[in-house]
Every structure is written in C-alpha cells, then in structure tokens.
User: Fold this.
Amino acid sequence: MRISASNQEETRDGFRFRGGHAALDLTATLTGRLKPTQRDLLTRPEDVIRWLQAAGFECAATAPDDDLLGMARRLREAIYALAMGCVAGQVRPASARATLNDIARLPAAAPEIGADGSARLRGDASALLTFVAREAVLLLGGEVADRVRQCEGDGCAILFFDTSRSGDRRWCSMTACGNRHKVAAFRQRKEKSQ
Assistant:
C-alpha cells in the first residue's frame, strides 16, 4: 500500500510518481498542464486500474467501466484545483470541494494486515479511489496543506508534498527538473565567465 513517498521508481507503467502522496500523484495523470496541449493518461477505464496498481494499491477484480473513468478524472481535477488553491494561498473552489467531498463519502477500501505482516487495502477500484479522495481531504484540509508545492521546473506542473526539513523544496524531482535547472544554471555561469 502506498500512501506517501517511497523509494520506488518515479515512473512506473507510464505514470509519474513524484508527488510523495497518492492524491498528488493522481493529478500527474494529465500531463502538459502548462502547455498548449495536454495529454490525458487516463483515456480508458483500464488505465485507472493500471494507475492504481502502479501506485502500489492491490486492486480487487473489477470490471472497469466509464463510470470509474469519470470518477477518476473528476477526482483528479478536484484535487488539482484544491492543491493549486493551497499553492497560491487562495480560497479553494467550491465546486472542487464539493466533488472531493462527494467522492470521499463513498464506501472506501478497508485497511488490513496481510499474511506477511504488511498493511494493504482491500477494495475494488472505486473504493481505492475513494480512499485516495479521503487522503486528499486530510492532506489539503489539514495542518500540512502549506507543504503542497508545484514544481518550479520550466513547463512542469507536477504537484508534490514538500517533506524537506527546511520546507523549501522547489522541484518535483532532483533527477529530472532539479537536474535540468542546475545544468542550465551551470551553463549560464560558464558563459558569463568566458
């Protein structure tokens, strides 16, 4: 079960996991938010199941349908709108709050301890998305909401939970956006010194 940051790969099964929190990682399934053309990684109901599995959830046998896809997309956009309100220090949009709260009220996956002693969730895809919605409520409506950030990388819109001690993390990933920034800054310094 993956709720927060882990040492797993940042990209799994074509999805990015740089947010440090499942709710923020869900928002990354729409790429190119700051660009003229976006790409939705949730185009079919089966993509929702793939994302849940890539996120580390054990998804019970589910017949994916368009309702599941719609739920995942509504949840993703509600979380994104609310998180951006946190980032900007603005009032959270009422429609996004209503959507998130409506999904969080649905029956959620139940936690249990597996035979190996590890925690996991039991539920179908809809119940797992509801769990993600509840986690989003706790994150975005809790005391650490001010630790939600948007990557400062050029053209990157990935949201992440800043767990740095100083609270000044700037990039979704040091191996991606952070490294590009450092390389660009190095080149600028080198050009100025010549």
